[in-house]
Write a structure and sequence with these properties.
By secondary structure, the chain is α+β, with helices and mostly antiparallel strands. It contains 13 helices and twelve strands. The longest helix has 20 residues. InterPro entries: Thiolase (IPR002155), Thiolase-like (IPR016039), Thiolase_C (IPR020617), Thiolase_CS (IPR020613), Thiolase_N (IPR020616).
Protein backbone atom coordinates (compact mmCIF):
# COMPACT_ATOMS: atom_id res chain seq x y z
CA UNK A 1 0.00 0.00 0.00
CA UNK A 2 1.36 3.43 -0.94
CA UNK A 3 2.10 5.83 1.89
CA UNK A 4 3.30 9.42 2.08
CA UNK A 5 6.41 10.27 4.06
CA UNK A 6 8.39 13.35 5.04
CA UNK A 7 12.00 13.07 3.96
CA UNK A 8 13.03 16.40 5.45
CA UNK A 9 11.68 19.79 6.45
CA UNK A 10 13.38 23.14 6.84
CA UNK A 11 12.45 26.71 7.61
CA UNK A 12 13.99 30.13 7.55
CA UNK A 13 14.47 32.10 10.73
CA UNK A 14 11.33 34.17 11.31
CA UNK A 15 11.86 37.92 11.07
CA UNK A 16 10.13 40.81 12.74
CA UNK A 17 7.82 42.88 10.62
CA UNK A 18 9.10 46.18 9.30
CA UNK A 19 10.53 48.67 10.09
CA UNK A 20 12.93 46.77 12.37
CA UNK A 21 12.80 43.29 10.88
CA UNK A 22 15.99 42.03 9.27
CA UNK A 23 14.10 40.02 6.63
CA UNK A 24 12.06 43.04 5.51
CA UNK A 25 14.71 43.69 2.87
CA UNK A 26 14.29 40.24 1.30
CA UNK A 27 11.80 39.82 -1.54
CA UNK A 28 9.27 37.09 -0.64
CA UNK A 29 10.23 35.09 -3.75
CA UNK A 30 13.85 35.04 -2.59
CA UNK A 31 12.89 34.22 0.99
CA UNK A 32 10.76 31.33 -0.24
CA UNK A 33 13.50 30.22 -2.63
CA UNK A 34 15.96 30.01 0.24
CA UNK A 35 13.75 27.47 2.04
CA UNK A 36 13.29 25.41 -1.15
CA UNK A 37 16.98 25.52 -2.08
CA UNK A 38 18.02 24.57 1.47
CA UNK A 39 15.65 21.59 1.39
CA UNK A 40 17.01 20.35 -1.94
CA UNK A 41 20.61 20.76 -0.78
CA UNK A 42 20.01 18.98 2.51
CA UNK A 43 18.26 16.00 0.97
CA UNK A 44 20.46 15.74 -2.11
CA UNK A 45 17.36 15.12 -4.23
CA UNK A 46 17.81 15.54 -7.97
CA UNK A 47 15.69 18.66 -8.63
CA UNK A 48 14.54 17.18 -11.93
CA UNK A 49 12.77 14.42 -9.97
CA UNK A 50 10.41 16.91 -8.30
CA UNK A 51 6.93 16.52 -9.76
CA UNK A 52 5.45 19.71 -8.32
CA UNK A 53 5.94 22.53 -5.83
CA UNK A 54 2.73 23.24 -3.90
CA UNK A 55 2.97 26.35 -1.81
CA UNK A 56 0.77 28.37 0.53
CA UNK A 57 0.58 32.17 0.63
CA UNK A 58 -2.19 34.37 2.01
CA UNK A 59 -1.38 37.81 0.62
CA UNK A 60 -1.43 36.93 -3.08
CA UNK A 61 -0.94 40.46 -4.33
CA UNK A 62 2.01 42.63 -5.31
CA UNK A 63 5.30 40.84 -4.68
CA UNK A 64 3.44 37.66 -3.72
CA UNK A 65 1.17 37.56 -6.77
CA UNK A 66 1.27 35.82 -10.16
CA UNK A 67 1.59 32.31 -8.65
CA UNK A 68 4.51 33.19 -6.39
CA UNK A 69 5.42 29.50 -5.94
CA UNK A 70 6.51 29.28 -9.60
CA UNK A 71 8.94 32.18 -9.24
CA UNK A 72 10.30 30.83 -5.97
CA UNK A 73 10.96 27.44 -7.61
CA UNK A 74 12.83 29.12 -10.46
CA UNK A 75 14.72 31.43 -8.09
CA UNK A 76 15.76 28.34 -6.10
CA UNK A 77 17.35 26.92 -9.25
CA UNK A 78 14.85 24.15 -9.93
CA UNK A 79 14.59 23.11 -13.59
CA UNK A 80 12.07 24.99 -15.68
CA UNK A 81 10.27 21.65 -16.17
CA UNK A 82 9.24 21.59 -12.48
CA UNK A 83 5.74 23.10 -12.11
CA UNK A 84 4.42 25.00 -9.11
CA UNK A 85 1.11 26.21 -7.73
CA UNK A 86 0.10 28.62 -4.97
CA UNK A 87 -2.86 27.77 -2.73
CA UNK A 88 -4.81 29.83 -0.21
CA UNK A 89 -6.51 28.38 2.82
CA UNK A 90 -5.63 31.50 4.77
CA UNK A 91 -3.29 30.82 7.71
CA UNK A 92 -3.46 27.08 6.96
CA UNK A 93 -2.26 27.53 3.39
CA UNK A 94 1.05 25.68 3.65
CA UNK A 95 -0.44 23.01 5.91
CA UNK A 96 -3.00 22.49 3.15
CA UNK A 97 -0.11 22.38 0.66
CA UNK A 98 1.33 19.48 2.66
CA UNK A 99 -2.06 17.74 2.57
CA UNK A 100 -2.31 18.18 -1.20
CA UNK A 101 1.25 16.91 -1.66
CA UNK A 102 0.62 13.82 0.46
CA UNK A 103 -2.73 13.15 -1.19
CA UNK A 104 -1.06 13.37 -4.62
CA UNK A 105 1.53 10.81 -3.55
CA UNK A 106 -1.14 8.52 -2.09
CA UNK A 107 -3.14 8.77 -5.31
CA UNK A 108 -0.12 7.89 -7.42
CA UNK A 109 -0.12 11.26 -9.18
CA UNK A 110 3.24 12.30 -7.67
CA UNK A 111 6.46 10.58 -6.66
CA UNK A 112 8.33 13.57 -5.22
CA UNK A 113 6.72 16.85 -4.12
CA UNK A 114 7.82 19.96 -2.27
CA UNK A 115 5.15 21.48 -0.04
CA UNK A 116 6.05 24.94 1.19
CA UNK A 117 4.83 28.35 2.23
CA UNK A 118 5.90 31.95 2.54
CA UNK A 119 4.66 35.25 3.86
CA UNK A 120 6.47 38.59 3.90
CA UNK A 121 4.12 40.63 6.04
CA UNK A 122 6.63 43.49 5.89
CA UNK A 123 6.41 43.81 2.13
CA UNK A 124 2.83 42.61 1.58
CA UNK A 125 0.86 43.91 4.57
CA UNK A 126 -1.83 41.70 6.03
CA UNK A 127 -5.18 42.33 4.37
CA UNK A 128 -3.75 44.31 1.46
CA UNK A 129 -5.33 41.90 -1.03
CA UNK A 130 -8.80 43.03 0.07
CA UNK A 131 -8.11 46.68 0.86
CA UNK A 132 -11.12 48.74 -0.18
CA UNK A 133 -12.91 45.65 -1.48
CA UNK A 134 -15.89 43.57 -0.35
CA UNK A 135 -14.76 39.93 -0.28
CA UNK A 136 -18.14 38.63 0.97
CA UNK A 137 -20.94 39.77 -1.33
CA UNK A 138 -24.67 40.00 -0.72
CA UNK A 139 -25.20 36.33 0.05
CA UNK A 140 -22.85 36.28 3.02
CA UNK A 141 -24.20 39.62 4.25
CA UNK A 142 -27.72 38.17 4.20
CA UNK A 143 -26.69 35.06 6.10
CA UNK A 144 -24.76 37.06 8.74
CA UNK A 145 -26.74 40.32 8.96
CA UNK A 146 -24.85 41.59 12.02
CA UNK A 147 -21.64 41.35 10.04
CA UNK A 148 -18.47 39.33 10.50
CA UNK A 149 -15.57 40.62 12.57
CA UNK A 150 -11.76 40.83 12.49
CA UNK A 151 -9.84 37.93 13.99
CA UNK A 152 -8.88 39.96 17.04
CA UNK A 153 -12.54 40.40 17.92
CA UNK A 154 -13.04 36.66 17.46
CA UNK A 155 -10.18 36.12 19.91
CA UNK A 156 -11.93 38.44 22.39
CA UNK A 157 -15.21 36.54 21.96
CA UNK A 158 -13.40 33.26 22.60
CA UNK A 159 -11.75 34.62 25.74
CA UNK A 160 -15.14 35.76 27.01
CA UNK A 161 -16.96 32.53 26.12
CA UNK A 162 -14.41 30.34 27.91
CA UNK A 163 -13.85 32.80 30.74
CA UNK A 164 -10.12 33.39 30.28
CA UNK A 165 -8.89 36.39 32.23
CA UNK A 166 -6.34 38.85 30.93
CA UNK A 167 -3.92 37.39 33.48
CA UNK A 168 -4.45 33.89 32.08
CA UNK A 169 -3.78 35.06 28.51
CA UNK A 170 -0.64 36.94 29.54
CA UNK A 171 0.63 33.98 31.57
CA UNK A 172 0.21 31.75 28.53
CA UNK A 173 2.10 34.23 26.34
CA UNK A 174 4.91 34.48 28.89
CA UNK A 175 5.30 30.71 28.85
CA UNK A 176 5.47 30.69 25.04
CA UNK A 177 8.43 33.07 25.17
CA UNK A 178 10.08 31.09 27.97
CA UNK A 179 9.83 27.84 26.03
CA UNK A 180 11.05 29.38 22.78
CA UNK A 181 14.02 31.06 24.46
CA UNK A 182 14.94 27.81 26.21
CA UNK A 183 14.69 25.88 22.94
CA UNK A 184 17.02 28.30 21.19
CA UNK A 185 19.45 28.23 24.13
CA UNK A 186 19.47 24.42 24.10
CA UNK A 187 20.06 24.22 20.33
CA UNK A 188 16.72 22.56 19.65
CA UNK A 189 16.05 24.67 16.55
CA UNK A 190 19.48 24.07 15.00
CA UNK A 191 18.41 21.28 12.65
CA UNK A 192 15.23 22.90 11.36
CA UNK A 193 16.47 26.44 10.64
CA UNK A 194 18.44 27.41 7.53
CA UNK A 195 20.19 30.75 8.26
CA UNK A 196 20.45 33.30 5.50
CA UNK A 197 21.92 36.69 4.67
CA UNK A 198 19.65 39.70 4.32
CA UNK A 199 20.42 43.16 2.98
CA UNK A 200 20.50 46.04 5.43
CA UNK A 201 19.36 49.54 4.42
CA UNK A 202 23.01 50.57 4.07
CA UNK A 203 23.67 47.80 1.55
CA UNK A 204 25.65 45.50 3.84
CA UNK A 205 24.48 41.97 4.59
CA UNK A 206 23.18 40.76 7.94
CA UNK A 207 23.48 37.15 9.06
CA UNK A 208 19.99 36.05 10.12
CA UNK A 209 20.29 32.94 12.26
CA UNK A 210 17.51 33.07 14.86
CA UNK A 211 13.86 34.01 15.23
CA UNK A 212 13.63 37.73 15.93
CA UNK A 213 10.46 37.99 18.01
CA UNK A 214 11.44 35.72 20.90
CA UNK A 215 11.74 37.89 24.04
CA UNK A 216 13.45 35.95 26.86
CA UNK A 217 12.76 38.71 29.37
CA UNK A 218 8.98 38.61 28.96
CA UNK A 219 7.03 38.57 32.22
CA UNK A 220 3.33 38.79 33.07
CA UNK A 221 4.03 42.17 34.66
CA UNK A 222 5.47 43.55 31.42
CA UNK A 223 2.56 42.18 29.37
CA UNK A 224 0.06 43.64 31.85
CA UNK A 225 1.18 47.11 30.81
CA UNK A 226 0.01 46.69 27.20
CA UNK A 227 -3.28 48.19 26.06
CA UNK A 228 -6.04 46.09 24.46
CA UNK A 229 -5.34 45.89 20.75
CA UNK A 230 -8.88 45.75 19.38
CA UNK A 231 -10.88 47.99 21.68
CA UNK A 232 -12.73 50.58 19.61
CA UNK A 233 -16.04 52.41 19.81
CA UNK A 234 -17.63 50.38 17.03
CA UNK A 235 -16.87 47.10 18.82
CA UNK A 236 -17.70 48.39 22.29
CA UNK A 237 -21.16 49.31 21.06
CA UNK A 238 -21.66 45.89 19.51
CA UNK A 239 -20.14 43.90 22.37
CA UNK A 240 -20.58 45.91 25.60
CA UNK A 241 -20.01 42.73 27.63
CA UNK A 242 -16.39 42.29 26.55
CA UNK A 243 -13.58 43.10 29.00
CA UNK A 244 -10.99 43.63 26.22
CA UNK A 245 -8.23 41.20 27.11
CA UNK A 246 -6.39 40.66 23.82
CA UNK A 247 -3.19 42.65 23.37
CA UNK A 248 -0.16 42.62 21.12
CA UNK A 249 1.55 40.66 23.89
CA UNK A 250 -0.84 37.69 23.98
CA UNK A 251 -1.25 37.50 20.19
CA UNK A 252 1.12 36.56 17.40
CA UNK A 253 3.21 39.39 15.89
CA UNK A 254 3.74 40.53 12.30
CA UNK A 255 6.40 38.37 10.66
CA UNK A 256 8.35 37.30 7.58
CA UNK A 257 9.32 33.68 6.97
CA UNK A 258 9.17 30.57 4.81
CA UNK A 259 9.35 26.79 5.18
CA UNK A 260 9.52 23.75 2.90
CA UNK A 261 8.86 20.02 3.25
CA UNK A 262 9.90 17.16 0.93
CA UNK A 263 7.16 14.54 0.53
CA UNK A 264 7.52 11.16 -1.24
CA UNK A 265 6.34 7.60 -0.79
CA UNK A 266 8.45 5.11 1.20
CA UNK A 267 9.02 3.17 -2.00
CA UNK A 268 10.29 6.21 -3.87
CA UNK A 269 12.47 7.24 -0.95
CA UNK A 270 14.07 3.80 -0.89
CA UNK A 271 14.74 3.91 -4.64
CA UNK A 272 16.39 7.30 -4.30
CA UNK A 273 18.41 6.38 -1.21
CA UNK A 274 16.51 8.79 1.03
CA UNK A 275 15.66 8.07 4.67
CA UNK A 276 12.21 9.34 5.69
CA UNK A 277 11.86 11.06 9.05
CA UNK A 278 8.09 10.63 9.48
CA UNK A 279 4.94 9.30 7.87
CA UNK A 280 2.03 11.58 7.07
CA UNK A 281 -0.57 9.53 8.90
CA UNK A 282 -3.92 11.35 8.67
CA UNK A 283 -5.43 14.64 7.52
CA UNK A 284 -8.60 16.60 8.19
CA UNK A 285 -10.06 19.97 7.32
CA UNK A 286 -13.26 21.41 8.68
CA UNK A 287 -15.41 24.51 8.90
CA UNK A 288 -16.84 26.17 11.98
CA UNK A 289 -18.66 29.36 13.02
CA UNK A 290 -17.11 32.21 10.96
CA UNK A 291 -17.89 34.69 13.72
CA UNK A 292 -15.91 32.90 16.42
CA UNK A 293 -13.76 31.95 13.43
CA UNK A 294 -10.74 30.54 15.30
CA UNK A 295 -12.46 27.61 17.05
CA UNK A 296 -12.32 25.29 14.04
CA UNK A 297 -9.24 23.60 15.49
CA UNK A 298 -11.48 21.90 18.07
CA UNK A 299 -13.64 19.89 15.60
CA UNK A 300 -10.66 19.51 13.26
CA UNK A 301 -8.66 17.79 16.01
CA UNK A 302 -11.55 15.46 16.81
CA UNK A 303 -12.00 14.69 13.12
CA UNK A 304 -8.35 13.88 12.43
CA UNK A 305 -8.09 11.68 15.53
CA UNK A 306 -11.15 9.73 14.39
CA UNK A 307 -9.64 9.32 10.93
CA UNK A 308 -6.36 8.19 12.46
CA UNK A 309 -8.02 5.74 14.85
CA UNK A 310 -6.14 7.38 17.71
CA UNK A 311 -7.09 9.00 21.00
CA UNK A 312 -5.76 12.24 22.42
CA UNK A 313 -3.60 10.27 24.83
CA UNK A 314 -1.85 8.55 21.91
CA UNK A 315 -0.42 11.87 20.74
CA UNK A 316 3.03 12.63 22.11
CA UNK A 317 3.36 16.23 20.92
CA UNK A 318 0.99 18.92 19.65
CA UNK A 319 1.69 22.03 17.60
CA UNK A 320 -1.30 24.35 17.86
CA UNK A 321 -0.85 27.68 16.14
CA UNK A 322 -0.78 30.51 18.64
CA UNK A 323 -2.59 33.13 16.61
CA UNK A 324 -3.92 34.28 19.99
CA UNK A 325 -3.47 32.82 23.45
CA UNK A 326 -7.24 32.44 23.86
CA UNK A 327 -7.41 30.12 20.84
CA UNK A 328 -4.99 27.55 22.24
CA UNK A 329 -6.47 27.79 25.73
CA UNK A 330 -9.99 27.13 24.40
CA UNK A 331 -8.68 24.14 22.41
CA UNK A 332 -7.00 22.75 25.53
CA UNK A 333 -10.10 23.32 27.65
CA UNK A 334 -12.43 21.58 25.21
CA UNK A 335 -10.20 18.60 24.46
CA UNK A 336 -8.41 18.16 27.77
CA UNK A 337 -4.96 18.13 26.17
CA UNK A 338 -1.95 18.07 28.46
CA UNK A 339 -0.35 21.56 28.31
CA UNK A 340 3.06 19.95 28.78
CA UNK A 341 2.69 18.37 25.32
CA UNK A 342 1.55 21.54 23.53
CA UNK A 343 4.07 23.74 21.71
CA UNK A 344 7.03 22.39 23.65
CA UNK A 345 9.49 24.72 21.93
CA UNK A 346 7.22 27.74 22.15
CA UNK A 347 4.61 28.86 19.67
CA UNK A 348 3.72 31.66 17.30
CA UNK A 349 3.29 34.25 20.06
CA UNK A 350 7.05 34.03 20.55
CA UNK A 351 8.39 32.50 17.33
CA UNK A 352 6.12 34.41 14.95
CA UNK A 353 3.31 33.70 12.52
CA UNK A 354 4.21 34.41 8.88
CA UNK A 355 0.68 33.47 7.76
CA UNK A 356 1.08 31.33 4.61
CA UNK A 357 4.39 29.93 5.86
CA UNK A 358 3.16 28.89 9.29
CA UNK A 359 1.63 25.51 8.47
CA UNK A 360 4.90 24.18 7.05
CA UNK A 361 6.78 25.83 9.92
CA UNK A 362 4.63 24.06 12.51
CA UNK A 363 5.22 20.74 10.77
CA UNK A 364 8.97 21.35 10.68
CA UNK A 365 8.99 22.09 14.40
CA UNK A 366 6.69 19.16 15.24
CA UNK A 367 9.06 16.81 13.47
CA UNK A 368 11.96 18.17 15.53
CA UNK A 369 10.04 17.85 18.79
CA UNK A 370 9.13 14.22 18.14
CA UNK A 371 12.75 13.38 17.43
CA UNK A 372 13.99 15.30 20.47
CA UNK A 373 11.52 13.61 22.82
CA UNK A 374 11.35 10.16 21.23
CA UNK A 375 7.62 10.54 20.64
CA UNK A 376 5.79 8.51 18.02
CA UNK A 377 2.73 10.55 17.04
CA UNK A 378 2.44 14.30 16.58
CA UNK A 379 -0.61 16.41 15.77
CA UNK A 380 -0.68 19.93 14.41
CA UNK A 381 -3.70 22.14 13.88
CA UNK A 382 -4.19 25.64 12.53
CA UNK A 383 -7.06 28.10 12.93
CA UNK A 384 -7.93 29.97 9.73
CA UNK A 385 -9.99 32.97 8.69
CA UNK A 386 -13.60 32.21 7.85
CA UNK A 387 -13.95 29.55 10.55
CA UNK A 388 -11.72 26.96 8.86
CA UNK A 389 -9.08 24.66 10.33
CA UNK A 390 -6.63 21.99 9.19
CA UNK A 391 -5.33 19.15 11.32
CA UNK A 392 -2.53 16.70 10.55
CA UNK A 393 -1.20 13.62 12.34
CA UNK A 394 2.35 12.44 11.63
CA UNK A 395 4.16 9.33 12.83
CA UNK A 396 7.89 9.47 13.51
CA UNK A 397 9.88 6.76 11.72
Amino acid sequence: MTDAVIVDAVRTPIGKGKPNGTLAGVHPVDLHAHAIRSLVERTGIDPARIDDVISGTVGQIGEQSMNTARWAALAAGLPESVPAVTVDRQCGSSQQAVHFAAQGVLAGAYDVVIASGVESMSRVPMGSQVAGQDPFGAGVAARYPEGLVPQGISAELIAAKWGFSRERLDAYATESHRRAAAAWADGRFAREVAPLKAPRPDGTLADVTTDETVRPGTTPEILAGLRPAYRADVWERRYPELDWRVTAGNASPINDGAAAVLVTSSETAAKLGLRPRARLHSFAVTGDDPLLMLTGIIPATRKVLARAGLSLSDIDAFEVNEAFASVVLAWQAELGADPAKVNLNGGAIALGHPLGGSGARLLTTLLSVLEQTGGRYGLQTMCEAGGLANATVIERL
